[in-house]
Amino acid sequence: MALELRQLRVVKAIADEGSLTAAAQKLGMAQASVSQALAQAERAAGGPLFRRGSRGALPTELGEVVLGPARTVLDAMERMTSAVARHRADDWPAAVRIGCAPGLLVAHLSVAVPLVAGSDVQITTATGTAGHLAALAAGRTEAALVTHFPVPGREGPADAEGGGQGALRGAVVAVEPLFAGVSARHRLAARPEADLAELAGEHWCLPPGSDDDLGAQLAEACRRAGHPVAVRGADHGAALALVREGRAVLPMMPGSRIGPGLVLLPLRGEPLTMATVLYWRSGGPLSEEWVRSLWEHLVRAQRELIEAAPAYRAWLAAHPYWRTTPPGPSGVRRPYG
Is 0.90 topped by the overall pTM? Predict the structure, then answer.
């Protein structure tokens, strides 16, 4: 008996969601139907595809063998379906234009968008968030993948009535803690984590043109830690050199790949956080189904690529309460509170 597409979708959903219950919810199926499809897939494959335990449903070695080709086949089917729909629709862009703030997920868009859309992609990368949202609202791009640095007590981006962004919708891809990048010779480098107050007197590097909210978040976090913040501007290369020399510290994403001479130092209590949000234009050419599919690709890349970094993986294991990605791409006007 050969594996069918319906069974492959069930296997993929179980692997992505971590349980049969969550897979059933994602697929809109009864759990009994998911269990039946999995049993059929396991008979066709010749053995168990998942082992179930306290951590949910994890692929077996045979399951991993099936999952790789299953993802390829389903991605190809998705791309074909999108291409056919795009061929029928007069308003679908020849190339999807996406504005991005620099980040670890940007490179994945060049792969994910053609898979989802069946069309080319044009990616524009620039620091800051406001410019990308303005370009999206004006129709110069079809989507934006940007970062926010929520400041306690401050609202998210204004909507249409307040600031011209009301036509935009957003789905949170990930909410992550920010670590402090410090020199390997720093007095705190060997610590598993440190209080922000222990970095009083350090100079923090922020890149020119970075989001104002990052500086505001850092200033507020330091104020709550009982000391003023000292900031110096430097591009990323210069900032890394200053950090390695022990002359500065740098807010860094926990999934960052670092070279010699630099350590990622987790901050106790997560005083610094970053939200990555996918925005699109309500009434624009991108359908809700297309957006959801792209969101799922980005979330999978977040989990499989970025969170695989050793420092991040260790931190997540030590902080099981932290949920990096939301359960679904519900559209929001204000992506953080």
Answer: no
Residues 115 and 255 in one domain: no
Q: Are residues 205 and 262 in the same domain?
A: yes
Judgement on whether residues 187 and 134 belong to the same structural domain of the protein: no
The reply to whether 334 falls in a domain is no
- Dihedral (CA of 306, 307, 310, 316) sign: positive
Strand order in the sheet with 120-125: 120-125, 95-100, 143-148, 273-281, 168-177
Pairing outcome for strands 143-148 and 120-125? unpaired
Q: What is the mean pLDDT of each run of 10 residues along the chain (337 residues)?
A: 83 91 89 91 90 86 90 76 56 77 85 73 86 91 91 55 59 93 95 95 81 84 93 85 93 89 94 93 82 88 88 91 74 40
Number of domains the chain is built from: 3
User: Length of the chain, please?
Assistant: 337
